Recover the amino acids of this structure.
């Protein structure tokens, strides 16, 4: 596995990820996918290292996926649950992180409802010269790098299972549909997909898909466009990424009703007829069935990559932990 050019101690954002870094992650994840297909799905790589999952916000798949990834690499894991922690007694987040540091944590996987928290912890660890790797597992509406990397791995593996690579996306059309405004998954995916030669089309109602997103495409290898109707984004698309309507982040009435949203932007079989015949649909989960995607479509393996995304997630997170922990940069 290629580790020689990996120099990143923390993975906080994909905004400045290089083509080489994408290719190292894809290659390494591909090796770990092979490990996960064996009867003995475990390697000793991170034996003796400690990975702490600090999830200040609810999560099912990301938290379990990081925990499993760490265990498959033979690391020890600690899981933190805010409701039963000293946060309830007024401890600050930085003090919580320093407590885990004092126990000898090598990597911290951090999710927080506030953008910038993983970055703040990373800066504090660097200030303390602690050599701890920080992985952003979703911060507010900012970024969710490991999700975008697993989406990329899922797409590239479908295009070439033996050599998942960024250049496979050259000329492919990818639609990202829904609540772009509140989505950290969309932001990280915009960075990763526009790092390739793909054509990325954002679509959502104007209240959830503001024009400032179009600027994220400036100076990137891929092309980024924005639409306030779904049809131009779906037209001839190779992949459609649907996003959950983040109702918990909507403090105003940004939508007339969920029914109208589904009518205008919901991904259905009828709408997929606009796309390429072998189009595939992704969704990061959790899904509002019948809102952003028709319930039956979500379960149809002919179109849906949702369970492959979950499976890919473990290999991709193993790759990230391996690269960050193995090299000890
Ligand atoms: C996403 C998240 O938490 O950002 N889910 C995930 O990690 N798989 C998307 C969402 O909550 O809609």
């Amino acid at each position: 596995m290629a580790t020689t050019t990996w120099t990143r101690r923390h993975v906080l954002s994909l905004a400045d990820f290089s083509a080489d870094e994408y290719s190292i992650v894809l290659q390494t994840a591909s090796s770990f996918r092979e490990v996960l297909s064996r009867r003995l799905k475990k390697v000793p790589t991170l034996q003796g290292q400690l990975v702490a999952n600090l999830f200040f916000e609810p999560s099912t798949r990301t938290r379990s996926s990081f925990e499993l990834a760490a265990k498959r690499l033979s690391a020890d894991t600690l899981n933190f649950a805010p409701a039963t922690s000293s946060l309830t007694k007024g401890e600050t987040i930085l003090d919580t992180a320093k407590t885990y540091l004092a126990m000898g944590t090598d990597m911290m996987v951090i999710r927080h409802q506030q953008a910038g928290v993983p970055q703040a912890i990373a800066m504090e660890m660097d200030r303390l010269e602690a050599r701890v790797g920080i992985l952003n597992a979703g911060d507010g509406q900012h970024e969710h790098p490991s999700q975008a990397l697993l989406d990329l791995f899922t797409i590239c593996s479908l295009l070439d299972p033996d050599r998942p690579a960024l250049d496979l996306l050259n000329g492919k059309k990818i639609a990202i549909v829904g609540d772009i405004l509140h989505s950290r998954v969309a932001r990280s995916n915009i960075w990763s997909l526009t790092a390739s030669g793909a054509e990325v089309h954002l679509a959502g109602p104007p209240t959830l898909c503001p024009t400032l997103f179009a600027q994220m495409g400036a100076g990137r290898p891929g092309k980024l466009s924005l639409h306030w109707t779904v049809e131009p984004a779906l037209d001839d698309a190779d992949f459609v990424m649907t996003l959950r309507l983040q109702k918990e982040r909507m403090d105003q009435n940004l939508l007339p009703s969920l029914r109208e949203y589904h009518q205008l932007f919901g991904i259905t079989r009828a709408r997929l007829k606009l796309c390429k015949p072998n189009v595939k649909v992704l969704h990061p989960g959790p899904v509002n069935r019948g809102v952003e995607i028709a319930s039956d479509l979500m379960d149809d393996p002919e179109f849906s990559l949702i369970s492959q995304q979950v499976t890919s997630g473990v290999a991709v997170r193993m790759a990230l932990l391996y690269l960050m922990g193995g090299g000890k940069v």
Q: What stands out?
A: Residues 182 and 251 are 11 Å apart (CA to CA). The first helix runs from residue 19 to 36. The chain has eleven helices and nine strands. The pocket of N-carbamoyl-L-aspartate is lined by residues 61-62, 138, 144, 147, 184-185, 244, 246, 284-285 (CB under 6 Å).
